[in-house]
Specification:
The protein is of the alpha+beta class. The chain contains 15 helices and 24 strands. It is about 25% helix and about 20% strand. Helix 5 runs antiparallel to helix 11.
Length: about 600
Amino acid sequence: VAFRLEASNEPAWSRLPTWSTSSDLDLLTPWLSVREANNFGDVDFELWVQKPKCQDVHLSNQGHRLALQESSHGVATCTKNFAGAELHKEYSIQTVNETASVYLRTSRMCGVGLFTRHKLDCSVVNHSEAQTTLALLADISAVRAFGVELELVARQKMSHRLFGYTHAAEIDPLVAISLARTCFRKKVDPVGHKVCDKHEDCPFNCYCRKAHSTTFKTHVSSYCKKRKKCDPTKSVDGHCPIPVSQWMWTHDPSVNPMTEAEATEAGAEDAMSESQGTAFELVSPVLTGSSGLESVAELMTTLKSMGVQAGPSAGMHVHVNVGKAWEPEDASLGSHLNATQILNVWAAYARFQLVINEMLQDSRIGNAYAHPLLLSRHKTVSRTADPNGLTTFLEDKKTNAERWESAARAVRQTYENLQLYHNSSRPRDRSFCDFIMPAAMGGGDGSAICGRRYPKARYFQLNLVPLNRLGTIEFRAFPATTDPERALRWVIFILKFVEHFKDDCRFADKAVDVLERAQRKASFEDLEAELSHDLTFFRTCPWLTGPACSAGQPVSAEDTIEAEKELQNTWEKGENLPRGLASEPEEDDDED
């Protein structure tokens, strides 16, 4: 099984439509089909171009040119077969007049996380389970405040029967989330006073308090105490870890457990069990320094121990503080970024967009709620199974021409608007955010887009809409994951990315065509060298395992289309607004 790219000057098979435009790539619409007879496999990925000479077609991945082979099937063609390690990658295709890119994906279920436990586990999590992840923080500290929004699905207990519900589906989402949160609290809170020498000896919601005496009691040894009462002068090392209980639990109806069909495709042994769970979203408090990164590691470790699932409808968003330039600067949160620095970060992300796409997974490429900052036309193609059991390729339903043309215009307009503001030499103020919003997404006419909570202008991998409301820029690309190491590595990467590229002005005054060429040529090697940061983990993609990541396991086109329609309807009806849960008061422990 392989993808195959074909470039020719006319249709090789009569069933293909006749070209009706003069465009070399015809909006990069690949003709995707099954070949009945060939000598390389039973599946083709065919893209033919009106240029019959191979030297006129430039195919590359991260700036490395790939060879095309001349062949003949009644007409002159150039071909390239794709299989194995060549899948799940971005390919740039360039002719004399046209440029575009194609991502080859096997399934939106590739890279998802099945439940990490067979049943909900509410026992106290052992700190040692986080040691491998926490080891990543050696010599790393966040110099800029950040926040994380994480969408997952938790295992359900039968406790809902106590509330008068017969079926799990009948549980009110807030009740179900409350039950999951109660389980979470049991995993991180202490039972009695545990003696400790260091914070690592305590549950994740506790710190190690120095020995002391009160009116009623004498503690001859240091002991574990809830972090919410931590005072650095009373901590054994003068450091107060962030209470994991400060993460807010909310409900987001756009997140759902996997369907049985999806779970089967992902390789689940018990697909029915995978289709039952409590969808929730966790929103972090403001996180800073090494304590903030430790909180992410502790939270992810606890959730994995509890039993969670990361399906294709879930994501992980990272907010990075850039400040509100019109307010006093708080050094503990990081310096304010000016308009030029925000342009620099945006342009750098656009430059490395094709590389970053390969750091994600199939469900996030072509995702309508996290458009990439691509400057040329793009297609995401998937392998699917038709009702007759034949294998074919379908264009991802989320990457229809109209939607992607609109997104591409918005990306270019944003770049131009950022440059206009930069060239005006104006200081960044409240008007900056609305000024840079693209007309293609409703901006450019004086509309106060940045004052809205859910404008469609926010659906980009790098979202600038929160600049006024939160003083942050949001990175929306990453999928939800049950792997603490993968989540923490992404947060570290994003923080390093912003801090390094904020002062890289190479594209501040460059035309969009210059940035587009840089986008095609950017590579992992470039990104690693400029960040001075090892990206081996993201280069090797250890999550690309299982049947859904193989070209031999097509996803059901019907299931994919129906799931996407349901999600689209949910968002268009405005039903995506998350509902928060009021924080439950924690019981006080002993007098301090």
